[in-house]
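Slides due. Your pick:
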Amino acid sequence: MSLSTPPDLPSFETVFAPVRSQTAFEETLERLGTAIKLGLLAPGARLPAERELCTRLEISRSTLRQALTALAQSGHLHAVRGRGGGTFVAERPPPADPPTRSVLESWQGACDVRLAVELGVAALAAGRATEDELQPLDELVTAMDDMADDFAGYRQADVRFHIALAEATHSPRLVALSTEAQGQMTDLISYIAHPPEILEHSNAQHAQLLKRIRAHDADGAVRTMAEHLRGTELVLAGLLPGASGE
């Protein structure tokens, strides 16, 4: 195995610069995933110790471990116990069918469209959704809690959640736009790994979003939705083969 990335390289400061607290889990995942894809963290490289990473990234140890676990489950990292152990970049990145050129050229645009639509949905749902409309969303969140190891089932429930939220705005045009955006995102998401840690974190945001909407807190609902979508974008940037983290 090769040694960890030397701290005097410019890439070291880039990879391990502080992340923002609002999207700490996803941004840490994106930062490390992109660094692995670009070779800034070479195959076999050992990551710095957890304490050092937490200090450099300015995140909690629990957030770091969530991100490391997700990357290990997706095949990008692996842990070695005992003397000389630590967390290492996989010698061979996980195989994946490369996305088409059109996918790579349009993924950021698809995320932008979804952001514009879903922020509007969150704002309007906070003012218009009824309890009868929100109750089925609670049931979907509960169901997704048990689907961390079943991505196909999780994704189906996730799509239903977002479209049902759009329906709670009482705007047929927003429902149509939300459905279109979900279709585009499904095509993109099919190219990346789906570690349980990512799904659990995403579903916790679903629950927080419903809490804001029930409180008729439009600003809070928009902020939570923005963090939720930004998380998806960061995961795509970090794990989508051939995508740029910029």
About this structure: The first strand starts at residue 77 and ends at 80. The chain has two domains: 10-89, 101-239. Residues 129 and 168 are 5 Å apart (CA to CA). The beta strands are 77-80, 86-89.
